[in-house]
């Protein structure tokens, strides 16, 4: 059964079509990677799935319901969690409070019920030390980790991750991969946009390639990586 | 193996502040026994302006809704009270509740309209709605139309509790009425501050802060930003209506131009909040005291007073946009009404954020 | 017949409102500045013209030519020294600062000129009228309306045909990128306010000749001016004229039904337009 | 040899957030330098600091031997440093031609405001904008005609609103707009972003012509291949720091990967 | 004697009503210079022309300054909030310069329900009433040959609602006297267009215009009327053309506008405080300030006359009931005429609290070399006051 399915979804900004007739399914519990050049429309696709943007055409179904016109907040409640590519922390709140907002509102729980959940998430993502620090003071890497943590705190069934591995050292990258693997094993479906391919490929079962808003390939990572087209368009560097 | 965590909000300063506040409130309750009537009236003025300022601050400082139309709720609340007393024969003290309810009722269509507008448009839209309310009330002949009217003296005389207070303090009825109004203002102000503080400490308060920081992100973590706006707007309207009713109960005379005055009930209130420090509970408290002192020192200088007031507003906004409390808390880190939730326990034991 | 007259007079009244609003529209359109002191600046302009008229004994229409450059410089300094510091995402600083300014101007005028009603006299022109078809039209109201149209044409020419207008539009779109083009936004804003105050001076002439003024009459008209700007749509000068006319006609038609509804009708027209088109009738680039 | 443009221990902050940590780059006269790096590495922030959109210490940016870190953006532009901003940033209220014209409207410290400020500066001791902008009169090869020659399609669309164009055409307008002031230095931030390869080729084809007229160029690119192809030297940034510098021929793909992503492939 | 008697005086020194208070310093100086004045300490508070502020300063005077007596003057916007406050506080209050109906009825809870009206215990008012102004106006109109068609300009404010009131205002009396009234309805103050009213007047062949209009609105109306070809034979207007500056603002078109005259230098009265005649008081004001005399001067002076007289008749100035009683018992010849709260010429409900002063009619006449003079043209209501000419029609 697929938890998410997009059917002929399109979105344009003025004359620029950023999402062009996109159709795909994500089976429950799967991890899907999305790659594509800068400006291909990857983040826009996320915004359409989360409801931060509404599509011009097409339908989006989540968890068996048509959510095409649902506002972002409703979709979050029904289980769509996301991270932003450009981190969007609540800067005046502490890291912990950032998570409390997500956990209380995203799951509909009371504040006392979520303390443990939030602390647990922070432990997993390694941000616990910074729990009481205002989010505005975090470095870029910490902000990205906060994005991941906050998305996890909403208790998602579907987790959308937008470029969270850039700029990590080897060790950090490994532990990030472990964290994401862990989330997967709990049964959470994951869609991950990432330029750091080795990290992506070690997690996802399927890869979707986006170019100019169009899905140009979707399938087994190894197959996709083999295809000449993808290498040319995406990597840019001749190998 | 799971570590045990808990959340702490209190600080040493806030505990101290709480005790001081408690003593202060008790002292204020007892004040009529040992201070002059003039002081009671001054305190009434301070407390009602404080209430208005807290609600405007809730609206603009926490909810991001910069309204220039709060006089609509003051005026409508006050007129509802006069209508109930004059036409319905309801006891004035009971009518204060009706004032709040009337303001709440007006707030619903106002919000439907004004929420379609953003920023400056919102501000001007609310102002126009307040004008419409003023002009409409000015057509209400049975409470005097554009002329205005006074509260019937009988109703004032027979007001509940007045006699009891008169006996208690052995004063004339007019002084007893002042004391009653003062106590009501004190209750209203304390409940307002406590209520707003409580709201900020709940998950809704946290969501309010999140929406203010980043609306898109807040929506993405399940915060219903639209409902927060409604909550804040309706609450402010209700509280502002109560304050309006109380203010005009004490004045005993009303006219549309006075009750819907944008200068008295919105501009001065904005001035108080901004001087004190927007987006904090402490700010309006400080602001109202400064405003009161300025008014007392300078009011006899007529137009010079207003000029100075205007200049102070300009200077504070330009050079200390976070107000006096902003300056103080920046220097000292002081917070009397802390809302910051600190995670303690587990491996964080003993560490302070 | 009466209805024709009512509408004609409403349109002419709309010209007055549009004139009040044109400067506001310019400033609001370019820098989203809500200037609550605009009405008081008009009154200030009227006093300035009055002083020139009394001291130099000039005809008001000539006195304007002298007052306008003074107001231009005043506007420039005001924006450069005070208002530029208030611009930004947050609408509160401009709101509070211009409100403070409004209080300061009003009371300074009160100190300087007392609360006496004043009027700028244009002699026989005041009561002159022209028969236009079935209705008689006052010469001054007609001049007011034509001046409003002329001001809007002139501002449009400035806006769309000159280098400075290009800089206005570019800065309004994106001040940061404009500064990369060698445009200095704070200067552009200062120039815009300076020009707005020239328009204010023209509005002041008609305010001062139409009826009495005293230091306190500014704010009462401010709200109509804002309504005209918002109805017209952000940054559209012709829209502002249309907005003024809508409010003017709504007022006279409302009054013809019952004078009680006169001012209310203007506000209600405003609310109705916004209910249907929250972005106004002719928003620029919208 | 003196660099034409140089940053020295350049730092930049957005509020509490530090985005640049002591960046040193230099651009020699006649050179093309590419800056690469992942999203959020700080490339755009670097461009904004050089052009004065973000304020810095005076000595953190040096142009032609003059410290310019503290100057406002318009004065820096009048010194001859033009920018093609990320995301093109055309003015939607201006037509294509007006977008171009405004780029050349203010060159050298010559407008009335500058003259007034220059007079005022004599009394207040403030920096004199006329003096600071001296040495660049903005005259040169580029004019509306030569830009239409370079990008003929723009002549056809001259009266359209800038935003009604395709992405590639918009990018051409943005480049033309920067050229209109005949700058010594032109900074291009991600000019290939979101464009089809064929369009990218067209745009990069203009680069030699631009260099011919005497401008030195900094390009910011995420497309590493493109960057390598056009640059004399490359800087790679990560997390607000320069992590790699060199000539394209001298750097290996692994170096880039390490510098770019932090982790080895 | 010892302590001086404390009087509070609330007056609109700043704001749109400031012209009413323009003579305050002159009058106060004069009062302090009199023998009686030495017994008093007068504490003056500015209402800023704002009813809210007026009530506030009244409270301050009563509670903080512990005044024995309140004086207040100038328009219902000032007198009513102050009087209401005094009444609730049980402090005696004398007020003036507001017709008695808006003062009395305007302070009743439900002005529409006469059965509910109640007299005041501490508030006393002296001025004329609408019945007087109606009599004066109709007498003036009677001097002209007109079709008896009247147009009314009544705004939705304290004065306008009283003047236009269908029971106690102009309409019933005009009806009785055979005039037809065209009353288009209550407009808001600071209206920018009067086309609706002008059209209604034209349609009904109105030859006489009356009303109680604020100055800027009358200028707007009058100018528009001229522009739209409407010139009545008479225009008798309250409030707007009270002050000479306001008439001057009309340029040449102010000639022969008519208005009620409550006080003038030719009123044959003199002060009980210092014996000055009306003419001398006006002259003194002009010498002190260089400005033309205005009508409130006499009444503000009279306010202090009444205060001094009443206080001289009480033993304990601190006893509000005694003071109120003394005021009620006043019989004094003042600079505005004889004053007594004896109910003369008043309906029973107002008899206790109101004393009436004489009213005549006047016209503004253009002076050679600029400026206007107010000439009394009708004294049928108070024959003691001499006229200076007779009523003239306005020329088209
Ligand atoms: N709100 C918007 N308005 C106009 N254009 C937009 C908007 N958001 C994105 N775009 C444009 O849409 C295109 C796709 O953007 P998007 O952010 O989806 O790309 P992406 O694939 O996520 O790229 P990257 O790898 O750089 O993150 C870009 O050209 C971008 O400029
Ligand atoms: N206005 C801003 N306020 C706060 N932080 C910002 C702002 N602009 C950029 N940043 C942050 O500064 C860091 C560097 O951003 P910058 O735009 O310079 O990166 P970049 O290398 O140009 O990335 P990209 O390839 O996405 O354009 C990022 O973490 C970004 O989130
Ligand atoms: Mg993206
Ligand atoms: Mg960038």
UniProtKB/TrEMBL annotation, chain A:
Keywords attached to this entry: ATP-binding, Nucleotide-binding, Transport
SMART domains hit by this protein: AAA
Domain ABC transporter: 4-237
InterPro entries: AAA+_ATPase (IPR003593), ABC_AA/LPS_Transport (IPR051120), ABC_transporter-like_ATP-bd (IPR003439), P-loop_NTPase (IPR027417)
Keyword Transferase set for record: no
Residues passing through the membrane, by range: none
Gene Ontology MF terms: ATP binding
Pfam families in UniProt: ABC_tran (PF00005)
Chain coiled-coil ranges: none
Superkingdom of origin: Bacteria
PANTHER family assigned: AMINO ACID ABC TRANSPORTER ATP-BINDING PROTEIN, CONSERVED COMPONENT OF ABC TRANSPORTER FOR NATURAL AMINO ACIDS-RELATED
Name the UniProt record assigns to this protein: ABC transporter ATP-binding protein
Annotated organism of origin: Lutimaribacter marinistellae
UniProtKB/TrEMBL annotation, chain B:
Highest taxon of the lineage: Bacteria
Membrane topology note: Multi-pass membrane protein
Membrane-spanning residues: 12-31, 43-65, 72-90, 96-115, 179-200, 230-249, 269-295, 301-320
CDD domains noted in UniProt: TM_PBP1_LivM_like
Sorted UniProt keywords: Cell membrane, Membrane, Transmembrane, Transmembrane helix
UniProt xrefs under InterPro entries: ABC_transp_permease, LivM-like
Subcellular location per the Swiss-Prot or TrEMBL entry: Cell membrane
Protein name (Swiss-Prot/TrEMBL): Branched-chain amino acid ABC transporter permease
Automatic annotation (TrEMBL), chain C:
Compartments where located: Cell membrane
InterPro entries noted in UniProt: ABC_transp_permease, BCAA_transport_permease
Main location: membrane
Entry keywords, A to Z: Amino-acid transport, Cell membrane, Membrane, Transmembrane, Transmembrane helix, Transport
Bilayer topology term: Multi-pass membrane protein
Transmembrane segments annotated in the record for this chain: 6-29, 61-79, 91-109, 139-159, 188-208, 228-249, 261-280
Record keyword Transport present: yes
Stored Pfam families: BPD_transp_2
Family: Belongs to the binding-protein-dependent transport system permease family. LivHM subfamily.
Full protein name: Branched-chain amino acid ABC transporter permease
Automatic annotation (TrEMBL), chain D:
Domain of life, source organism: Bacteria
Residue span, ABC transporter domain: 5-264
CDD domains hit by this protein: ABC_TM1139_LivF_branched
InterPro entries linked: AAA+_ATPase, ABC_transporter-like_ATP-bd, ABC_transporter-like_CS, BCAA_Transport_ATP-bd_LivF, P-loop_NTPase
Record flagged with keyword Phosphoprotein: no
GO molecular function, a single term: ATP binding
One Pfam family linked to the record: ABC_tran
Keyword line: Amino-acid transport, ATP-binding, Nucleotide-binding, Transport
PROSITE patterns: ABC_TRANSPORTER_1 (PS00211), ABC_TRANSPORTER_2 (PS50893)
Keyword flag Zinc-finger: no
Family: Belongs to the ABC transporter superfamily.
Protein name in the entry: ABC transporter ATP-binding protein
């Amino acid at each position: 059964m697929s938890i998410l399915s997009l059917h002929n979804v399109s979105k344009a900004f003025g004359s620029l079509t950023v999402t062009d007739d996109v159709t795909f399914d994500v089976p429950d519990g799967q991890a899907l990677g999305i790659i594509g050049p800068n400006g291909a429309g990857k983040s826009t696709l996320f915004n359409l799935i989360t409801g931060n943007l509404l599509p011009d055409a097409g339908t989006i179904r989540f968890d068996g319901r048509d959510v095409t016109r649902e506002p972002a907040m409703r979709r979050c409640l029904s289980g769509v969690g996301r991270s932003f590519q450009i981190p969007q922390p609540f800067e005046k709140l502490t890291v912990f409070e950032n998570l409390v907002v997500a956990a209380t509102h995203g799951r509909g729980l009371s504040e006392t019920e979520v303390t443990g959940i939030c602390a647990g998430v922070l432990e997993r993502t390694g941000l616990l030390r910074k729990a009481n620090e205002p989010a505005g003071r975090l470095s870029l890497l910490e902000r990205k980790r906060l994005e991941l943590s906050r998305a996890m705190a909403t208790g998602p069934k579907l987790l959308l991750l937008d470029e969270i591995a850039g700029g990590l050292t080897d060790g950090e990258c490994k532990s990030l991969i472990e964290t994401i693997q862990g989330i997967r094993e709990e049964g959470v479906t994951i869609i991950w946009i990432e330029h750091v391919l080795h990290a992506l490929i070690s997690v996802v079962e399927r890869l979707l390639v986006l170019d100019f808003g169009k899905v140009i390939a979707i399938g087994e990572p190894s197959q996709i990586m083999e295809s000449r087209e993808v290498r040319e368009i995406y990597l840019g560097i001749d190998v | 193996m799971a570590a045990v965590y808990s959340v702490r909000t209190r600080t040493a300063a806030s505990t101290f502040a709480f005790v001081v506040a408690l003593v202060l409130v008790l002292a204020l309750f007892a004040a009529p026994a040992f201070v002059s009537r003039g002081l009671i009236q001054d305190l009434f003025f301070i407390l009602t302006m404080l209430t208005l300022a807290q609600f405007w601050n809730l609206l603009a400082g926490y909810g991001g809704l910069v309204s220039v139309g709060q006089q609509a709720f003051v005026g409508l609340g006050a007129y509802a009270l006069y209508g109930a007393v004059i036409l319905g024969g309801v006891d004035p003290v009971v009518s204060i509740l009706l004032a709040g309810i009337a303001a709440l009722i007006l707030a619903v269509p106002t919000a439907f309209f004004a929420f379609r507008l953003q920023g400056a448009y919102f501000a001007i839209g609310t102002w126009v709605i307040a004008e419409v309310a003023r002009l409409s009330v000015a057509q209400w002949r049975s409470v005097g139309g554009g002329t205005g009217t006074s509260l019937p003296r009988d109703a004032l005389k027979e007001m509940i509790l007045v006699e009891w207070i008169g006996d208690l303090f052995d004063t004339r009825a007019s002084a007893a009425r002042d004391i009653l109004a003062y106590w009501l203002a004190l209750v209203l102000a304390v409940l307002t501050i406590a209520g707003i503080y409580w709201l900020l400490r709940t998950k809704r308060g946290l969501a309010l802060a999140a929406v203010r920081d980043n609306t898109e992100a807040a929506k993405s973590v399940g915060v219903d930003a639209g409902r927060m706006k409604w909550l804040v707007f309706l609450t402010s309207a209700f509280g502002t209506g109560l304050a309006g009713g109380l203010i005009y109960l004490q004045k005993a005379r009303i006219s549309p131009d006075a009750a819907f005055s944008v200068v008295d009930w919105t501009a001065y209130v904005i001035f108080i909040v901004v001087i004190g420090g927007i987006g904090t509970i402490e700010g309006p408290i400080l602001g109202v005291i400064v405003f009161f002192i300025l008014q007392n020192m300078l009011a006899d200088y007529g137009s010079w007073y207003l000029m100075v007031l205007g200049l102070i507003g300009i200077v504070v906004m330009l050079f200390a946009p976070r107000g006096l409390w902003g300056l103080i808390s920046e220097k000292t880190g002081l917070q009397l009404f802390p809302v910051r939730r600190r995670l303690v326990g587990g491996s964080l034991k003993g560490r302070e954020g | 017949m009466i209805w024709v007259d009512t509408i004609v007079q409403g349109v002419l009244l709309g010209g007055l409102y549009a004139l009040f609003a044109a400067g506001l529209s310019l400033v609001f359109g370019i820098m989203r500045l809500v200037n609550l002191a605009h009405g008081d600046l008009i009154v200030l302009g009227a006093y300035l013209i009055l002083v020139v008229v009394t001291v130099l004994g000039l005809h008001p229409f000539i006195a304007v030519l002298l007052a306008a450059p003074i107001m231009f410089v005043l506007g420039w300094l005001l924006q450069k020294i005070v208002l530029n510091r208030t611009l930004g995402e947050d609408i509160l600083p401009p709101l509070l600062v211009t409100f403070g300014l409004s209080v300061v101007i009003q009371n300074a005028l009160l100190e300087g000129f007392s609360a006496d009603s004043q009027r700028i006299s244009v002699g026989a022109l005041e009561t002159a009228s022209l028969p236009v078809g079935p209705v008689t039209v006052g010469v001054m109201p007609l001049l007011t309306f034509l001046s409003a149209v002329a001001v809007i044409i002139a501002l449009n020419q400035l806006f769309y045909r000159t280098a400075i207008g290009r800089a206005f539009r570019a800065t309004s779109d994106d001040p940061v990128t404009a500064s990369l083009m060698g445009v200095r936004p704070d200067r552009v804003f200062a120039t815009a306010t300076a020009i707005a105050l020239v328009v204010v001076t023209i509005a002041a002439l008609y305010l001062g000749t139409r009826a009495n003024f005293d230091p306190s009459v500014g704010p009462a008209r401010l709200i109509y001016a804002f309504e005209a700007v918002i109805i017209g749509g952000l940054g559209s000068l012709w829209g502002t004229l249309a907005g003024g006319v809508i409010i003017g006609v709504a007022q006279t038609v409302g009054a013809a039904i019952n004078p009680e509804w006169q001012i209310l009708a203007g506000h209600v027209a405003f609310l109705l337009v916004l209910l249907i088109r929250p972005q106004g009738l002719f928003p620029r680039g919208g | 040899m003196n660099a034409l443009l140089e940053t020295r221990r350049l730092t930049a902050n957005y509020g509490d957030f530090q985005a640049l940590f002591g960046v040193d780059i230099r651009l020699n006269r006649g050179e093309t330098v590419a800056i690469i790096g992942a999203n959020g590495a700080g490339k755009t922030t670097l461009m904004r600091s050089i052009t004065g959109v973000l304020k810095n210490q005076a000595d953190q940016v040096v142009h032609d031997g003059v410290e310019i870190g503290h100057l406002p953006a318009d004065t820096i532009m009048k010194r001859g440093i033009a920018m093609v901003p990320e995301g093109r940033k055309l003015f939607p209220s201006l037509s294509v031609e007006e977008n171009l014209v405004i780029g050349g409207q203010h060159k050298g410290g010559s407008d009335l405001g500058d003259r007034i400020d220059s007079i005022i500066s004599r009394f207040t001791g403030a920096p004199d904008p006329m003096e600071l902008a001296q040495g660049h009169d903005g005259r040169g090869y580029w004019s509306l005609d030569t830009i239409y020659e370079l990008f003929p399609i723009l002549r056809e669309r001259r009266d359209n609103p800038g935003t009604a164009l395709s992405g590639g055409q918009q990018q051409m307008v943005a480049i033309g707009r920067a050229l209109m002031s005949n700058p010594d230095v032109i900074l291009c931030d991600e000019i290939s972003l979101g464009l089809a390869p064929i369009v990218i080729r067209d745009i990069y084809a203009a680069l030699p012509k631009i260099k011919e007229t005497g401008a030195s160029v900094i390009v910011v690119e995420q497309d590493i291949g493109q960057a390598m192809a056009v640059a004399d030297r490359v800087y790679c940034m990560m997390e607000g720091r320069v992590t790699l510098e060199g000539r394209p021929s001298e750097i290996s793909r692994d170096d880039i990967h390490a510098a770019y992503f932090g982790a080895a492939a | 004697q010892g302590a001086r008697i404390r009087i509070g005086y609330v007056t609109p020194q700043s704001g749109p009503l400031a012209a009413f208070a323009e003579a305050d310093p002159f009058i106060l100086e004069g009062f302090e210079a009199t023998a009686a004045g030495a017994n008093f300490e007068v504490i003056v508070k500015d209402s800023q022309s704002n009813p809210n502020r007026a009530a506030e300063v009244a409270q301050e005077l009563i509670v903080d300054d512990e005044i024995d007596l309140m004086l207040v003057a100038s328009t219902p916007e000032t007198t009513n909030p102050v009087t209401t406050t005094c009444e609730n506080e049980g402090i005696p209050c004398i007020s003036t310069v507001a017709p008695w109906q808006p003062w009395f009825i305007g302070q009743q809870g439900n002005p529409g329900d006469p059965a509910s009206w109640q007299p005041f215990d501490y508030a006393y008012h002296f001025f004329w009433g609408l019945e007087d102004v109606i009599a004066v106006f109709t007498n003036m109109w009677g001097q002209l040959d007109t079709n008896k068609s009247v147009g009314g300009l009544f705004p939705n404010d304290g004065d306008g609602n009283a003047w236009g009131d269908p029971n106690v205002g102009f309409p019933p009396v005009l009806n009785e006297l055979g005039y037809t009234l065209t009353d288009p309805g209550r407009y808001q103050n600071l209206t920018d267009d009067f086309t609706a009213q002008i059209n209604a007047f034209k349609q009904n062949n109105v030859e006489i215009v009356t009303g109680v209009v604020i100055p800027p609105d009358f200028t707007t109306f009058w100018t528009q009327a001229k522009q739209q070809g409407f010139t009545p034979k008479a225009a008798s207007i309250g409030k707007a053309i009270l002050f000479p500056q306001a008439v001057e603002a009309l340029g040449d078109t102010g000639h022969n506008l008519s208005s009620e005259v409550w006080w003038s230098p030719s009123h044959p009265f003199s002060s009980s405080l210092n014996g000055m005649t009306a003419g001398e008081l006006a002259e003194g004001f002009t010498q002190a300030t260089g400005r033309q005399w205005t009508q409130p001067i006499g009444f503000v002076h009279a306010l202090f006359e009444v205060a001094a007289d009443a206080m001289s008749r009480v033993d304990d100035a601190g006893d509000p009931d005694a003071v109120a009683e003394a005021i009620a018992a006043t019989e004094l010849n003042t600079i505005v005429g004889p004053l007594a709260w004896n109910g003369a010429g008043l309906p029973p409900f107002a008899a206790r609290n109101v004393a009436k002063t004489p009213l005549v009619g006047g016209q503004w006449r253009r002076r050679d070399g600029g400026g206007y003079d107010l000439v009394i043209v009708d004294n049928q209501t108070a024959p003691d006051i001499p006229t200076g000419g007779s009523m003239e029609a306005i020329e088209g």
